[in-house]
Design goal:
Number of helices: 2
Helix content: 10-25%
Number of domains: 1
Number of strands: 9
CATH class: Mainly Beta
Order of helices and strands: HEEEEHEEEEE
Length: about 210
Amino acid sequence: MDGRLFSILLIAALLGPMQATLAQQERPSSPQVIEPEVERRDINRARIDTENFELGGYAGIMSVEDFGTNAVYGARLAYHITESFFIEANYGMTTTDKTSFERLSGGAELLSDSERDLTYYNAVLGYNLFPGEVFLGGSRAMDSSLYLVAGAGSTDFGGDDEFTMVFGFGYRVLPTDSLAFHLNVRDHIFESDLLGQDDTYHNIEAILGLTFFF
């Protein structure tokens, strides 16, 4: 009886290590952790210069209600109060066409040639609504901003100076630290009795501008 018990214990002692070895061989090996090698690219950013003044010019088209759409050009001076707010002064001019009534009447002239020249000046407050970046290629980023403007000024047209409200939006891109391109759409609103009755005129302009910080 003791001999059989001794044989059983001996067999168990021999089988135990063998089963552990087989189990270790059958166990799937843990996957090797791969550390990704991300190559960081250097991006050159054009930032707004440390100076706060901005000076430049612009050109585009202006639709004067009842007087056609013509070329407009002017000058702009801005001062950046903070990163979000700026004030801006503008002076622009355009020459209007004849009205449909003048063309159809066959000779009636509502305005003289000099009175067809429209000039305006205004001051607006701007707010940088969505500052961001524009990427050129894979290694250059240019600062940009979508902004809103609102203000007031005066329009000289048809022999009268009219108080004018100005509302609009613009988009600014800086290819260098001190150079900026602008795209603007603005509405110049004033009241006039130029055509015989009081009316509100909405004169829309779309302009491209180039300015320098100094």
